[in-house]
Amino acid sequence: MSITTAPSTPVTLPRDRSDLVVVGAGIVGLAHAVEAVRRGLRVTVVERDRRPVGASVRNFGHCCVTAQRGELLDLATRSRTGWLDAAARAGLWAPEAGALVVARSATELAVLEELREERGTDAVRLRTRDEVGDALGRPADERGDLAGGALLPADLRVNPREAAPRIAAWLAEQPGVRVLWGTNVTGVESGTVHTSRGPVHGDQVLVCVGHDLDRLYPREAEAHGIERCRLSMARVEAPAAFRTDAAVLTATSMLRYDAFTATPSAAALRDEVIGHSAELLDIGANVMFTRLPDGTVLVGDSHAYDTTEIPFQDEAVPALLLREVARVLGVRDVRVTERWQGVYASSARGPLLVRDLAPGVRALSVTSGVGMTLSFGLAAATFDGTLRATA
Ligand SMILES: Cc1cc2nc3c(=O)[nH]c(=O)nc-3n(C[C@H](O)[C@H](O)[C@H](O)COP(=O)(O)OP(=O)(O)OC[C@H]3O[C@@H](n4cnc5c(N)ncnc54)[C@H](O)[C@@H]3O)c2cc1C
Question: Which residue's alpha carbon is nearest to atom 50 within ligand 1?
Answer without folding.
Answer: 59
